[in-house]
Amino acid sequence: MNYDCLIIGGGIAGLQAAIQLGRYKHRVLVIDAGGGRSEICKSYHNILGYPDGVSGQTLRDLGKKQAESLGIQFVKGKAIKARKEADQFVITLESGETFQSARLLLATGVMDRIPPIPGIMPCLGTSIYVCPDCDGYEVLNKKTIVIGSGNAGANKALTIAYWTTDIIMINHEEGMPDELLQKQMQRKGIQLIQADILEVLSEGDAFQGVLLKNGERIYAEKAFLGFGGTAVHSSLAEQLGAEIMENRHIIVNPRTKMTNVPNVWAIGDVIAHSEQVTIAMGDGSQAAIWIHKSLMPNQ
């Protein structure tokens, strides 16, 4: 089948775009490798209508079901190659399968660098957080540990000092924060400890503290990760000649979300690195509207 649009990425941005395009009755295929950022977040609390929180997986499950009800098709797989042939885009998966379409929407997201410290994953998104804009409020007036390293960890600690004054940063890797950042932390009363973490202490998904390799236990109510190195993990945009930034995020028209390559759009964290579900949803709808406009002469 020749599709009207291929959407690469089945996260929140991609699903919202798929729903909108489905309501336009376009032939759309979503190619999703799984394992995205929204799959590991157990509770978003800053989304309209969900004051008690909603998991990324719940949103994905509901979004996929809604999209399928509108005729959107899905395939599991990782897209690794993209090329243009005449007026069609051809996407090749790791499996060797190929799909083609008149329009292409990249919603491949980014992935945070999460160190392999035992005990992090059960708490991630519930009592250990990544994004202060999403979850800074969750540590309001609570003792909080920043598990991080270097300048990235220091900046995370300084950011969440807006919500709590009881912060300890554990510099888990080699390389201390710059002297200026250390002085700023001192002024904020943020304790800085250079130590390797052996494991995260928790009860179920409730963070309780950390066990250091020297045997010391440090207790707290909440934690943030601050390691930097958040990575764009798809090269499809570059393969097609799309303009990207130094950090490999894709540059798009702010109004239409189209890249500099005609008929190639990009949305979500891969463009803005906003780490916001609500913005990803808006991106998806906005791009879908302009994709529909571009397809209208072909109907």
In brief:
With 299 residues, the chain is of the alpha/beta class. It is built from ten helices and 17 strands.
Shape: elongated
Order of helices and strands: EHEHHEEEEEHEHEHEHEEEEEEHEHH
Strand content bin: 25-35%
Look at the helices and sheets and give the structural class: alpha/beta
Largest sheet: 7 strands, mixed
Radius of gyration (Å):
21 Å
Distance between the termini: 16 Å
Cofactor: FAD
Subunit structure: Homodimer.
InterPro entries: FAD/NAD-bd_sf, FAD/NAD-binding_dom, Ferredoxin-NADP_redctase_2
Protein name: NAD(P)/FAD-dependent oxidoreductase
Structure description:
- About 30% of the residues lie in helices and about 30% in strands.
- It is of the alpha/beta class.
- The strands form four sheets. Strands 1, 2, 3, 4, 5, 6 and 17 form a seven-stranded mixed β-sheet that branches. A five-stranded parallel β-sheet has the order 8-15-9-10-11. It has a three-stranded antiparallel β-sheet with strand order 12-13-14.
- Helix 1 (about 10-25) runs parallel beside helix 3 and helix 6 packs parallel to helix 7.
- The protein is elongated, with a radius of gyration of 21 Å.
- This is NAD(P)/FAD-dependent oxidoreductase.
- InterPro entries: FAD/NAD-bd_sf, FAD/NAD-binding_dom, Ferredoxin-NADP_redctase_2.
- Homodimer.
- Keywords: Flavoprotein, Oxidoreductase.
